[in-house]
Amino acid sequence: MKTILVDAFNTFVIKDYGIFEEMHSLLEEYKNRKIIVTNANDEQIITLGLVNLPYELFTLKHEPEKSDPEYFKVLLNKYDLKAEDLIYFEHNVDAVKSAESLGIKTYHYNHEIKDLVKLKDFLDNNIN
Fold it and tell me: I need a labelling partner for 87 at 20 to 30 A (CA). Which of 15, 23, 96, 105 fits?
């Protein structure tokens, strides 16, 4: 079963709002493991509201950033996964390109539009 990587800030957690509940409800439709990914350091985790999340949080605290493929290599190693075991949605184009460079099926999520219909389509078409 594929693991869903979920971009943290400006995707799953919205500034001054908290968890994007509609997205959370959508993700709950899938029994797959979910991991929230961020660049945040310990202080930023608190200030950005990345606490008390319903899924585990993975960060390398900017060493390196998600825009560096090494970030995802470390994640794969830590969780003993292969790129084909993952699907990922992310608002940052550079992070999308980084993950895709390793063969991770990735969707560029527009955090301003918040189109959950397109996100659901991506998930449905790539979850198996």
Answer: 15
